[in-house]
């Protein structure tokens, strides 16, 4: 917790009352303007502790009006009421007056963002802009001057548009950032984007006047009016994110305007702010969009313009503020997110903005009021300084500088000291339970206590106070500029550059502990028992032994920078009681605190650590043996950072530290509002770091102070009260934290050196202590027991049970064993707990623990032990951690926490929700809360029985409840109760409400109102009521009514009985049909015996499922219509003889389809097939399937089954159902016939598929032959299948014939002799491999094929040779024409066409014409254009002069030229792929 030291400024005697204060934005220099009615005004500069800078004093016989610091340089602009403007540099004090421009009171001074412009304005409306150099000095006269004729009230510069930070980009480029370097060299390198260098500062500004106008002055000094409002303008502010200008008038009217690029403005919104207008209003604008106003009321108002929200902050009397205290002024520190407000009673209220992790839904919860600081007089002005820890407060008579300081605290040898105020300490002596207060005449910056002395210092002076009982006496004071001190016995250790001084209480230096230059300057000191550890600014640590008369080095200096990566600086060092372990907290190079606590082993010279970010030590150092326990512990500790740490005062193995979440530990070391976890570790050489315990710090505690077994010691949070009385902060108090009672006040002799008095009875309890987990209930034990418990805890932590029990074998106290059992709950060691329970003699707990072994979760078993030991909170946490909400629910019920039990059941254990409601209701009934019990009985859905039972003794309440609930079950119960009380009229009414018609009919029959009962039964149709009424009518021999109501009750058996007994045959048939088969059979027998209505008997036998009897009776009585109805219900499960008899009947009456179905059902498949053939009945697929016998059937052999299937297929073939025939042939295993049937169907896709799956040679050949009958020339896929099937069927001779056909197609249709040659070559290959022909026939065919290949090859060669040697090509072609059988291989027309084309190209048209004539003689009917191109024919016609006729094949030639390309390509690909195969 922080306090603020107040330093009153050392103002000169000539200074009057302060009027204004102003901090420099970057340096800790405060300017204060003072006014005196007699001497005029003066300006003074002060440093952060109030020291006056004498060289910078300015006084005038008139009053100063405005102060404005240069944004970066220590130059102050002063405005006076005479119009003078003065520049005052610090610390030289060389005053510079601006040239006379203003003649009226200066009202505004404003610097631009970098200080290159200064705007001055006065009461007469004169505005001047001055140019300044880089050092803040004036450059000539004013740059521009405007006169607005009205007083100027406010000025604001518009920020420059965002551009690149040139300095940062330059640093990045120098460090090797290629993208940054490209921005500087984009034009030369030809890559990257140009560097956008906007203006370094915004030079456009807005100025307001008293008549409500706002003017814009641009960079060149040109002025233009942009907007106007009603009333004088008090404040201008700029929302940079939205490019909006805000205006606040003296009447608190807020307006927002959107700004154009040239300074134009358009009103966005306008609203009246709450608050007292007409009074002095302090308005603050923050960069995060908050507008804060203080108008002299009891609240300050905040408007969040980014979120469009507003709220107020008020004072709290519980924090020390007075009722009716008013807030005069405000100031906001963005770096610390603290809002300060000054009151008229001299207090400064501080609100801390709390950052909530998820969302900021409620703005009021963002601010927490802190402890106030008390000053003198009414606070009129507040301003935060350049340092985040400085705050200037101006009152009516003086100015005070408040410097933030973290409260000092120290604990040693059972003495604790905690700072209350800058000059006051609270001392607690735990050995005597005495509490004292020390008041010093200096601001205390540090304190150290020992058993007999208290040492305080402020960085310049050290004072030592000696304690003698309840009296404090000043025994020494000396000057010392050490910022840190340590005390051991009579020695005081202070630091200087490169050494530590050992002083006496009077300040005499008696020893120097030197450090080399490499080891650095000592900056950290800590003493534990007789050992001193020193940390330096170069990250070295060194331990000294203080047991002798002089301090002696315990080890050499250790350079931690070599051991710890990214080490920036040491934050804190502490050593243990033996001096062999040193714990270190460090800051990383980036300035953030490290997440690890480092441990330096002095004897082993090693450094290890515990990483709180992962929640575990480094690999190789185990937490313990139980991995399940360690996983949960690591998850609790992960994501944290150590804040404070210390060792036990006497136990060298025990270490404790406070940890905070990572994202909160870097916020100015402020851990007040975060969940701080206190972690205790054992640290040894043999076993490393072992987690002993962890628990959250209570909200009422400030920080960990010390560890001294059996207690942790914490400082308490305080509220500052009036009259220097301090009380602890209200809130959650840890029940295990003990506050030390204060002793009665003691007196101090007036002869003492200082006024040091014990506190008044209202003195606060500044230190609270909490027992260690292992010592709860054993706080007052002797040292032997304490040591035994520590050893037991240590061995239990490392899992050495033998040593653990050895350490406590001599302990006989049940309290100690119970405490160890509690320890087992924390460590989750049930094996040890059983031993402890045995020594305690707690048989009940031992039995409960044994019964809990069936639970699968360890936490659930440990929770049972915790319950038996009374550790209810631990049991609750354990049940929650293992998510056993059913057991947690039972635990809450058993411990009487019914609200938690209900909540758990509603959210997590819904399977036991109604049970929980019921148990809670029973509990409430037991304690007499019947109204609430009634509600929970209803929730548990047991109210229909439990509530009447509960309220039975209170009939009036029960009747009210019955009428209120309107529940039918409760109505019925109440009616039965009234009926038992003979109140029939009321019972009938409630039976009617309950809609219990049986009871209504029953009561009416009882009362003799049978007619009313009949009406109810008829209206409602209630079966039970109708049955009861039918019984009543039967007893009265009213057969008709009885049969009617038996029928309505669906009691058909009784109705049939009455009909038979009384001969009511007309209703008997209908009743029998409505009833069950037994009643139908009984009625059918009745009709059959009587010999009348035989059709009814047949129908009833049929409906009852007695088909044989129905058929027999139908045949006997010749009821053919009934026979047809019966036959429709026959199936394969019926009697075969019955089926055959029925089929004969249907054949006889020409109903063949029904006869076939019955024959199939009777499994007479051959007769059914023959009937289908004889009567030409179509065999459907369903019928064929019904005649198909499964393979595993035992009724028919496999041969007979196949024969039947083939007969079915033959029948389907005759009927033209080829697909079904194929299916049946396939099922019969005859794939050849199946293929033939499929071929007849013409389904190409199924033929290809069937051939592929059959894999038989004959089927492949059949499929290929079929495919050849299709148009395979246009479908490459068919061609591919033909080749594949012939190949798979090994019909190479047929394949050769197919290739020959392909070659002929290529010649005839496309004149593509190259492809034809390839096809003929493939045919030759296939023919050479073919078998089965006679040798002579095969040789003859091969010779013929070879000759054809030879002719085609010669023609192809001639066409290819033509480009190189046309003459030779022509000679080859003419030689081909001499072959007698050329036309069988090469068409004669193609050969002649080749020659004609050649002679036409050469111009030999006569020769070409002769060749054409020869062709026409050989083939008179031939179309010439099919072989000779149209161009050649036209050229020949022109040359010869004779017309050349066209034949009928011309169109074919045209189609040949323009179409078929795609087919040709696809055929080519198919052939080539096969050739590759």
What are the salient characteristics of this protein?
1477 residues, five-stranded antiparallel β-sheet, 49 helices, 64 strands
Structure in words:
With 1477 residues, the protein is an alpha+beta fold. It is built from 49 helices and 64 strands. The strands form 16 sheets. Strands 26, 27, 28, 29 and 30 form a 5-stranded antiparallel β-sheet that branches. β40 (461-468) and β41 (471-479) form a beta hairpin. α35 runs antiparallel to α36. It is extended, with a radius of gyration of 56 Å.
Quick synopsis:
The protein is of the alpha+beta class.
**Whole-number average pLDDT?**
78
| Individual helix count | 49
Shape: extended
Largest sheet: 5 strands, antiparallel
* Rg calculated over all Cα atoms: 56 Å
Poorly predicted ranges (pLDDT <50, ≥5 residues)?
A: 186-193, 358-365, 620-626, 665-671, 730-762, 1446-1477
Which structural class do you get from the secondary structure elements? alpha+beta
- Give the total of beta strands: 64
Q: What's the N-to-C terminus distance?
A: 91 Å
Portion of residues in helices? 25-40%
Q: What share of residues are in beta strands?
A: 25-35%
Oligomeric state as shown: single chain
SSE inventory with pairings:
Blueprint: E1 2-8, E2 17-23, E3 30-36, E4 40-46, E5 52-60, E6 64-69, E7 75-80, E8 85-89, E9 96-97, E10 106-111, E11 117-122, E12 126-132, E13 138-147, E14 152-157, H1 166-174, H2 178-184, H3 186-189, E15 205-209, E16 213-217, E17 223-228, E18 233-239, E19 244-249, E20 253-259, E21 265-272, E22 282-285, E23 290-294, E24 299-304, E25 309-314, E26 327-333, E27 338-343, E28 347-353, E29 367-369, E30 373-374, E31 381-384, E32 390-394, E33 399-406, E34 409-412, E35 415-421, E36 424-429, E37 434-439, E38 446-449, E39 453-457, E40 461-468, E41 471-479, E42 485-488, E43 491-496, E44 499-503, E45 509-514, E46 522-528, E47 531-536, E48 540-545, E49 552-553, E50 558-559, E51 567-575, E52 581-588, E53 596-601, E54 606-611, H4 627-637, E55 640-647, E56 654-661, H5 662-665, E57 677-684, E58 688-696, E59 701-708, E60 711-716, E61 718-720, E62 726-728, E63 737-739, E64 767-771, H6 783-798, H7 801-807, H8 814-827, H9 830-840, H10 843-851, H11 858-868, H12 872-881, H13 885-894, H14 898-907, H15 913-926, H16 930-939, ...
Antiparallel strand pairs: 1-33, 2-3, 3-4, 4-5, 6-7, 7-8, 8-9, 10-11, 11-12, 12-13, 14-15, 15-16, 16-17, 18-19, 19-20, 20-21, 22-23, 23-24, 24-25, 26-27, 27-28, 28-29, 28-30, 31-32, 32-33, 34-35, 35-36, 36-37, 38-39, 39-40, 40-41, 42-43, 43-44, 44-45, 46-47, 47-48, 48-49, 48-50, 51-52, 52-53, ...
């Amino acid at each position: 917790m922080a306090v603020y030291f107040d330093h009153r400024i050392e103002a000169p005697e000539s200074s009057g009352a302060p009027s204004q204060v102003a901090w420099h934005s970057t340096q800790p220099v405060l300017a204060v303007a003072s006014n005196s009615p007699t001497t005029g005004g003066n300006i003074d500069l002060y440093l952060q502790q109030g020291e006056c800078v004498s060289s910078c004093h300015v006084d005038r016989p008139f009053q100063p009006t405005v102060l404005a610091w240069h944004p970066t340089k220590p130059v102050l602009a002063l405005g006076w009421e005479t119009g003078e403007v003065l520049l005052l540099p610090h610390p030289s004090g060389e005053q510079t007056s601006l040239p006379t421009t203003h003649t009226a009171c200066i009202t505004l001074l404003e610097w631009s963002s970098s200080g290159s412009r200064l705007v001055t304005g006065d009461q007469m409306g004169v505005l001047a802009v001055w140019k300044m150099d880089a050092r803040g000095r004036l450059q000539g006269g004013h740059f521009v001057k405007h006169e607005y004729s009205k007083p100027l009230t406010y000025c604001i510069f518009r920020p420059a548009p965002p551009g690149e930070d040139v300095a940062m980009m330059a640093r990045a480029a120098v460090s090797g950032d290629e993208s940054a370097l490209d921005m500087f060299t984009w034009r030369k390198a030809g890559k990257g984007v140009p560097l956008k260098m906007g203006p370094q500062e915004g030079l456009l500004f807005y100025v307001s006047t008293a008549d409500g106008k706002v003017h814009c002055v641009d960079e060149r000094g040109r002025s233009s009016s942009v907007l106007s409002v009603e009333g004088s303008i008090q404040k201008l502010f700029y929302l940079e994110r939205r490019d909006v200008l805000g205006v606040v008038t003296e009447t608190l009217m807020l307006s927002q305007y959107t700004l154009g690029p040239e300074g134009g403005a358009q009103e966005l919104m306008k609203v009246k702010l709450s608050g007292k207008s007409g009074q002095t209003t302090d308005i603050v604008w923050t960069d995060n969009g908050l507008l804060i106003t203080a108008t002299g009321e009891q609240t300050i108002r905040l408007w969040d313009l980014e979120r469009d929200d507003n709220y107020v902050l008020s004072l709290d009397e519980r924090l020390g503020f007075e009722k009716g205290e008013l807030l005069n002024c405000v100031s906001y520190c963005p770096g610390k997110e603290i809002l300060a407000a000054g009151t008229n009673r001299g207090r400064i209220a501080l609100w801390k903005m709390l950052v909530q992790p998820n969302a900021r839904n409620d703005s009021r919860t963002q601010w927490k009021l802190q402890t106030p600081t008390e000053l003198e007089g009414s606070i009129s002005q507040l301003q935060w300084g350049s340092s985040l820890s400085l705050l200037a407060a101006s009152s009516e008579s003086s100015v005070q500088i408040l410097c933030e300081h973290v409260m000092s605290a120290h604990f040693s040898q059972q003495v604790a000291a905690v700072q209350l105020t800058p000059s006051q300490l609270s001392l607690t002596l735990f050995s005597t339970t005495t509490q004292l207060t020390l008041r010093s005449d200096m601001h205390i910056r540090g304190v150290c206590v020992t058993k007999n002395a208290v040492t305080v210092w402020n960085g310049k002076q050290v004072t030592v106070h000696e304690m003698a009982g309840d009296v404090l006496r000043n025994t020494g004071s000396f000057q010392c500029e050490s910022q840190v001190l340590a005390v051991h016995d009579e020695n005081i250790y202070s630091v200087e550059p490169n050494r530590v001084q050992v002083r006496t209480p009077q300040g005499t230096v008696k020893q120097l502990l030197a450090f080399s230059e490499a080891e650095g300057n000592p900056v950290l000191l800590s003493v534990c028992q007789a050992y001193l550890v020193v940390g330096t600014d170069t990250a070295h640590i060194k331990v000294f032994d203080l047991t002798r008369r002089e301090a002696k080095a315990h080890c050499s200096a250790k350079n931690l920078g070599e051991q710890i990566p990214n080490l920036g600086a040491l934050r804190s060092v502490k050593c243990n009681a033996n001096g062999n372990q040193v714990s270190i907290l460090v800051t990383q190079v980036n300035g953030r605190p490290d997440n690890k606590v480092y441990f330096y082993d002095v004897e082993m010279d090693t450094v290890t650590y515990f990483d709180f970010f992962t929640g575990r030590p480094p690999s190789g150092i185990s937490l313990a043996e139980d991995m399940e326990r360690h996983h949960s512990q690591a998850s609790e500790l992960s994501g944290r950072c150590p804040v404070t740490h210390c060792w036990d005062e006497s136990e060298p193995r025990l270490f404790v530290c406070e940890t905070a979440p990572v994202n909160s530990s870097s916020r100015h070391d402020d851990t007040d509002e975060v969940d701080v976890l206190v972690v205790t570790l054992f640290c040894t050489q043999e076993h490393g770091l072992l987690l002993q315990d962890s628990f959250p710090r209570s909200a009422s505690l400030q920080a960990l102070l010390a560890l001294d077994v059996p207690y942790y010691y914490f400082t308490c949070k305080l509220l500052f009260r009036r009259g220097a009385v301090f009380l602890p902060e209200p809130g959650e108090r840890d029940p295990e934290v003990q506050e030390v009672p204060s002793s009665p006040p003691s007196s101090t002799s007036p002869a003492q050196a200082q006024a040091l008095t014990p506190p008044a009875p209202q003195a606060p309890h500044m230190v609270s202590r909490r027992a260690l987990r292992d010592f709860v209930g054993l706080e007052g034990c002797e040292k032997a027991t304490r040591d035994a418990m520590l050893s037991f805890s240590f061995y239990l932590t490392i899992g050495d049970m033998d040593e653990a029990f050895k350490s406590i074998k001599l302990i006989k106290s049940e309290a100690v064993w119970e405490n160890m059992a509690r320890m087992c709950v924390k460590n989750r060691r049930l094996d040890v707990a059983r031993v402890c329970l045995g020594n305690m003699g707690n048989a009940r707990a031992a039995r409960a623990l044994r019964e809990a072994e069936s639970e699968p979760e360890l936490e659930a078993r440990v929770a049972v032990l915790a319950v038996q030991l009374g550790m209810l909170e631990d049991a609750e946490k354990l049940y929650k951690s293992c998510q056993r909400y059913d057991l947690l629910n039972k635990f809450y019920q058993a411990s009487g926490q019914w609200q938690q039990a209900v909540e758990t059941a509603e959210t997590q254990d819904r399977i036991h929700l109604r049970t929980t409601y019921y148990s809670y209701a029973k509990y409430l009934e037991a304690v007499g809360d019947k109204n609430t019990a009634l509600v929970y009985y209803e929730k548990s859905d047991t109210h229909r029985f439990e509530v009447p039972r509960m309220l039975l003794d209170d009939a009036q309440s029960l009747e009210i409840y019955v009428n209120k609930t309107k529940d039918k079950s409760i109505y019925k119960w109440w009616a039965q109760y009234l009926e038992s009380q003979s109140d029939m009229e009321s019972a009938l009414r409630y039976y009617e409400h309950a809609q219990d018609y049986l009871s209504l009919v029953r009561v009416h029959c009882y009362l003799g109102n049978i007619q009313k009962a009949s009406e109810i039964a008829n209206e409602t149709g209630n079966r039970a009521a109708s049955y009861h009424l039918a019984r009543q009518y039967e007893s009265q021999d009213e057969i008709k009514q009885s049969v009617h109501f038996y029928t309505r009750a669906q009691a058909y058996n009784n109705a049939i009985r009455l009909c038979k007994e009384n001969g009511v045959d007309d209703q008997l048939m209908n009743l029998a049909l409505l009833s069950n088969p037994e009643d139908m059979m009984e009625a059918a027998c009745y009709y059959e015996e009587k010999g009348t209505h035989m059709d009814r008997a047949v129908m009833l036998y049929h409906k009852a499922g007695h088909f044989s009897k129905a058929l027999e009776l139908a045949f006997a009585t010749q009821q053919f219509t009934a026979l047809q109805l019966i036959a429709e219900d026959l199936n394969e499960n019926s009697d075969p003889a019955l089926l055959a008899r029925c089929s004969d009947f249907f054949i006889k009456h020409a109903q063949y389809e029904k006869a076939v179905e019955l024959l199939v059902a009777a499994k007479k498949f051959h007769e059914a097939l023959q009937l289908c053939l004889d009567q030409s009945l179509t065999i459907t697929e369903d019928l064929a399937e019904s005649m198909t016998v499964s393979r595993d059937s035992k009724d028919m052999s496999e041969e007979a089954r196949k024969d039947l299937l083939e007969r079915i297929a033959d029948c389907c073939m005759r009927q033209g159902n080829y697909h079904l025939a194929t299916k049946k042939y396939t099922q019969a295993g005859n794939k050849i016939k199946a293929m033939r049937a499929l071929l007849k169907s013409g389904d190409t896709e199924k033929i290809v598929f069937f051939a592929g799956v059959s894999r038989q040679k004959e089927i492949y050949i059949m499929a290929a032959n079929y495919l050849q009958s299709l148009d395979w020339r246009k479908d490459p896929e068919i061609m591919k299948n033909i080749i594949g099937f012939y190949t798979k069927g090994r019909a190479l001779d047929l394949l050769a014939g197919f290739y020959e056909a392909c070659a002929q197609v290529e010649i005839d249709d496309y004149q593509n002799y190259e492809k034809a040659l390839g096809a003929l070559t493939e045919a030759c290959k296939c023919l050479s491999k073919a078998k089965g022909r006679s040798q002579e026939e095969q040789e003859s065919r091969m010779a013929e094929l070879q000759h054809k290949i030879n002719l085609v090859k010669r023609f192809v060669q001639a066409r290819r040779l033509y480009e190189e040697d046309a003459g030779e090509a022509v000679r080859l072609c003419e030689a081909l024409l001499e072959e007698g059988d050329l036309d069988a291989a090469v068409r004669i027309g193609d050969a002649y066409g080749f020659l004609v084309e050649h002679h036409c190209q050469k111009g030999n048209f006569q020769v070409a014409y002769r060749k054409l004539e020869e062709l026409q003689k050989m083939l008179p009917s031939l179309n010439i254009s099919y072989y000779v191109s149209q161009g050649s024919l036209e050229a020949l016609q022109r040359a010869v002069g004779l017309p050349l006729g066209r034949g009928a094949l011309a169109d074919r030639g045209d189609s040949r030229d323009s179409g078929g390309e795609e087919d040709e390509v696809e055929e080519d690909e198919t052939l080539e792929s096969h050739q590759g195969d």
